[in-house]
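Why do we care about 3D structure at all? Because function follows from shape, and shape follows, mostly, from sequence. That is the central idea of this module. The next example makes it concrete: a single protein chain, its amino acid sequence, and then its structure expressed as tokens.
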Amino acid sequence: MRDKDLLLGIDIGTTGTKCSVYDLKGKRVASAYREYSMIHPRPGWTEQDPSRWWDAVCRNLQAIFTGQGIDKNRIAAVGTSSTNAVVLVDRQGQPVSNAISLHDQRSGPQVEWLKENIGEERIRSLAANRIANGSFCLPALRWLAENRTELTREAYKLMVPCGYVIHKLTGEFTMNRSRMSLTLMADIRTGRWDTDIAEQIGLRAELLPRPCSSTEIAGTVTEWAASVTGLAAGTPVTGGTIDTVAATIGAGAVEAGDFALTIGSSGRLCSIGAQPMKDQRLLNIYGAYDGQYVIVQSTNNACVSLRWFRDTFGKEAAREALAAGCGIYTYLDRLAAAAPAGAGGLIWLPYLAGEQSPIWDTRARGVFYGAGLESDYRAFVRAVLEGVAFSQRHCMEVVLDQSDGPDIIPLGGGAANSPLWCQIFADVLGIPVARLRSNETETLGDIIIAAQAAGIPEIPPDFGKALAADGEVFWPDAVRASVYDGQYRIYRELYQALKPVFAGGTDRWGREEPDSSKRQQTQDTAGGTE
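And the structure:
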């Protein structure tokens, strides 16, 4: 029997960090989650305090080792994944400012500057991706170079969330190849930085951290990190990856033609290819394994939509849930289940923070359409669930232009905790949906990748595929699917009709730019359903 028979996965999300420990059979034996807020200094700006990522990791691990009785000496390796955000740090790894989050929309002018001065063709040939803000770091970095020159001059390294945590654990400054492929400053095929682009946008090449493979040991836990986390000093820590890549591996999608759907804070429809795809509506990411490319359709506001609705309109529902002895998301599920398919004609456009795939419109905004005197609270909840599913159908149609569709699609993330939402996805997509036995696919993917780095044969690269085979299957219902077909046509027409209104932006809405010194923190809590 192995002395080190457990693996730790750490996923740094947009609204919270989860740490989970698994045994070598893929069973989760301990887990802890901690939420934090997003920061909105101005309309369209979204930032995060990186110290909250590390604080969440430390508190989670202390809860696991102290409160849940896990022996730190049994941890064979640590795998990490994270959402997208960029932060500059000093030589000690301390942030010189808040991180700019993937939901941030400030860098629209920088997108145009990059198109004019770098050129989309050059970026496309290098990174196999478009120039846009949100998913890609380059516009935000150009914004920093233009507007916070003192930070880019004084900083030591550019970091992303999992790289920041890896540095805290090991003292190493690294960035994994998956995340590098979305900076637009690295060759997606070779994994090398293009320092000319970095310097052309106003960054020193020295800011770029050491490239690292996801299946590489980036470093080991230091004595200091051990003292604050409870981990054993010397525990190997892998190079990390994008949460999307980890979730895809956790769902069992590792071979060309495999699909996976992850609905967490954002929505991610992924397929595996041997080469990047050329359609500019798609994101191409270098995978965790050599020669693997993850083709992604990423939407901004999946479970974020439900959380926003909960926080904005759910105070009475929260009281009713407490009286009923259940969690708020369980209660919202019950309400939505009592509404008819199609929510009585109510439709939700889930564009709260603009949208990425497939419309790539930073000015789009969330809209409820079709409300009447008969529309009740239950219908609004159900419309949110259905609107998120419509957004994934829109993405699926783009992918099907490029390849054959799946016979069944594994579903992970917070939405998979809701049987109703799983059924809605099956009915809207017209494809059977398999709710994964372990829908916490990010940390599961983390430990599968870590097992490859640590040379643990009990967990092969496609370990998630065997686990996915045990998932509960939700089959499309023809009657509901017919209702959703009609609703979906209206959903598509709504965006096209509203696109000119969205293009009017803040001027048309009459919003004034607030004083930048007045920083408002929005308590955007849990990143999904219970």
